[in-house]
Amino acid sequence: MLKGPVRRTPRRMPSLRRAGLHVREIDMTGSKLSDKIKVAMIPEDTTDEIYPMACYYFDGSGKSIRPLIVGRIAEALGGCIETNEKLQKVAMIAEMIHTGSLVHDDVIDKSEERRGKASANSKWGVTKAVMAGNYIISYSSQLLASLESDEVTKIISRIIEDLIYGELCQLESVNSNHEHRYKQYIKKTYLKTASLIANSAEAVAVLTDQPAHVQQAAFNFGKYLGIAFQIQDDRLDFLADSEQLGKPACADLKLGLSTAPVLYACQTHEGEMWPLMKRRFTSPGDVQKAHNIITKRSDALLKTRLLAENYAKRAAREIDMLTADPVLKENLLELTKMVTNRDK
């Protein structure tokens, strides 16, 4: 018989049942953690030019979903990121790796805007932006080393590897077969987004001394939740405006990316969509035509939402393995609902 997760009785974070999972709570979590990250990255040389650049995106304006998920999983497993320094560092590391990758993504994509302000590469140039991203990742590595856990180091190191392969996967040519395109999309979504959440969740389970099956459940919860989160993000790219998203709307189409809405629209309008996808929406009028098919002439956005909800339900099925506490179960369940109901 499988044993449940190891129990402790630390001070609990405010539960979602009592407080509700609102944007305000997410923003406060992000702001508090951002301040800690900025303190952790302070260089010995106070005249260091790179430090203000590295801190630029740590302004509390991001979604901060990753540290929130880490905190909720820690709570479910009997830990607390507010009182347990090691668990808090996992949350910080997750946000630092994510933010460092955003800086690098903006360089690769030549983005001019991020979170409603000029991107780092637009503000300081490509070279300095790359160095700022590297700086953030280097400090996350120092925090990781301070955990003094070989197992956690191996787990978190997977995230960096997956981010690299995810970027390469995104650059691959779009496959002509729908099933292969779908598998390619889910693989890329895991590598670029869900891996960070899944492996951070597993690291929390390791640091709270959970048995192997609970570690696997934590990983699975993070994996499925992360995939659901990104699928909803891809859907919002066609629904939300630039102010809500914190980046230009239809950014994925403009980058030539075939996300879930594109793939579903191609199922029913292949004659029109496939030529656009093959040339990555680079010809004049391609973006507008694809957007029209997706939003007005197909059920692609509905199917995308249902796909996100399917992965959120898969995450929810892991909850019983993580905690027996009904309040803590509800906290995790609220996360699975939030990722598909959010509008930014």
TrEMBL record:
Keywords: Isoprene biosynthesis, Magnesium, Metal-binding, Transferase. InterPro entries: Isoprenoid_synthase_dom_sf, Polyprenyl_synt, Polyprenyl_synt_CS. PROSITE patterns: POLYPRENYL_SYNTHASE_1 (PS00723). One of its GO terms (biological process) is isoprenoid biosynthetic process. SUPFAM superfamilies: Terpenoid synthases (SSF48576). One of its GO terms (molecular function) is metal ion binding. PANTHER family: ALL TRANS-POLYPRENYL-DIPHOSPHATE SYNTHASE PDSS1, GERANYLGERANYL PYROPHOSPHATE SYNTHASE. Belongs to the FPP/GGPP synthase family. This is Uncharacterized protein.
